[in-house]
Structure formats: C-alpha cells, structure tokens
Amino acid sequence: MTIKILLAGLVLLIGGCTTQNGSYSYQPKPSQKYPSEKLAMTSSNIYKKNGELHATMRPYSVMGKEYYPTVVRVGDTFSGMASWYGPDFHGKSTSNGEGYDMYAMTAAHKTLPMNTVVRVTNTQTDAQTIVRINDRGPFVETRIIDLSLAAAKQIGVDRTGTAPVTLEVLGFEPTGVRSIDMARMAKGPRESVLTSFFVQIGSFERFEGAMITKQKYASFNGYSAIIKDTEYNNKRLFRVWLGGFKSEAEARDFISRGYFQGSFIIRE
To answer: Which is deepest, 8, 37, 171, 261, by most CB within 10 Å?
Structure first.
C-alpha cells in the first residue's frame, strides 16, 4: 500500500480504532537498484544478479520492527490469528505490485515468500480455504495473516473479524502467476530453495563499522566475511556477509546457533 495508506492505518490503530474490516496492509518503497552487486530476489526468496532487488522480498521495517522474508518448505505449519481486508484496499497495489482484488483467493503475510500457497484452517470451525501470498501484513502483533474478502468468507472470518487459524504451506506458484494451480504446484519445488549461500551478520551506514566486523569475523568457524556495498531506502548500507555454506540446511543450522541476532540467509 502507499505510505499515505500506511499512515492512515497507523492513526486508526493509535486512536484505538481499526479500518472497516479490522485490518490494514503495507507496501514497502519501490524497488531500488544496488550500486554494485545489483541483486534481485525472486518470489522464492532467492537473491540473483539480475538488475535490482525487489522491495517486496527484502528485509523491511514497519513501526520500528524489522521483518525478514523467510525460506519455507511444503508441509511447514504456523498458527495465530487471521484477519481480513477488503473495500478500503480493493484495486490498490499490493506489495508484489499486483492490484488487490478482494474477490481473489489471496492474502498478506509478514515474511512468507511471495506466491507461497497456504491452506488456512479456522480452528474453531475446521473450515478451510487456500490462498496465495501477494502482500505484506497484517502489522498487528497478534495476527499472522490478512485474508482477502473472498477467502475470509470461506472460513467465516468476514463475520467475526478475526479467528484463530493454522497455516500449512502447500507449494509455490511461479512468479507472475495469479491463479492457484494445484497440479502445476505439485510438480514444482518442495521448498523455496537457495543454492548459493551467505548469511548476513551485520549492516552499517559507516564503512568503518562494516570493516571492523569483517576483520573480526574474517574467519569464523570455517566461514569467511565479505562486505557488500548496497543501497536501501535511499541510504547507503555496508552489509557484512559470511560465505562458504554448502547448503541451505547448513546455513539454517548456523543461524539456529544464535551467533548473530537477526541474521538471515541470502543468495548472491
């Protein structure tokens, strides 16, 4: 959504109110080119050398909190509260650039890769719906997914406003495909796969800070540190990456050990 829409949502939230449907969504700033590596992240959460880094799949900040799009696999499950958004946003741009259609089977999620397809189950009624992630939100701490009006109707969330749900990852649709094709998806990847791996361990506005970190972790548990000169939200940032991971599982295991708070997997 636009910044104006985000600010309107914040005013409503701070005032103790909600939008008409009890939720809102957010659109990060448009894509910005990197001055050097020029990386791009696809709907499967993969960075590539391809001109630019898509704003919808890079780390972003809302209300002072950082969010990092994550790597998931078929069968992963999550639980929390679902909400929905409709008329106030119908026709406006979603975080992946599509026009929001409240009658389509889509949803907003904070960190799932774009075009991830999930089954949503209302745990109070066992009603189910299947949606494709094409937006970011809801930015309310207790909620994990914002459903379109059509999806909300299928599981009764349009009547209650919110409901406890479980999410199950079913698969990943190709970039640019708006429909959910279960047969095509079944033949696709079982995981939002990465094949060349780095782990970001720091981000600095001053090169000196990045250099100190690089030197400190030049050789850390068998991995080597490098500095990437990048731009994010009109600011020059020097990111420090650890390289040398041979698989996503290896990078995941490294992150799980808690050496660096907020670290995440990327691919060059």
So the answer is: 171
Average pLDDT of the residues of the chain: 76
Q: What is the signed CA dihedral for 88, 94, 100, 103, rounded to 10 degrees?
A: -100
Burial of 35 (0-12, 13-18, 19+ CB in 10 A): exposed
The two three-digit tokens of residue 147, written as one number: 């459903």
Torsion of CA 54, 58, 64, 66, to 10 degrees: 170
Determine the residue type at 91: G
Phi, psi of 243 (to 5 degrees): -120, 170
Share of the chain above pLDDT 90, in %: 41
Q: For residue 36, which phi and psi values (nearest 5 degrees)? A: -125, -80
pLDDT bucket at 173, cuts 50 / 70 / 90? confident
pTM over 0.70? The answer is no
Mean pLDDT of 208-232: 89
Nearest of 21, 61, 37, 40 to residue 175 by alpha carbon: 40
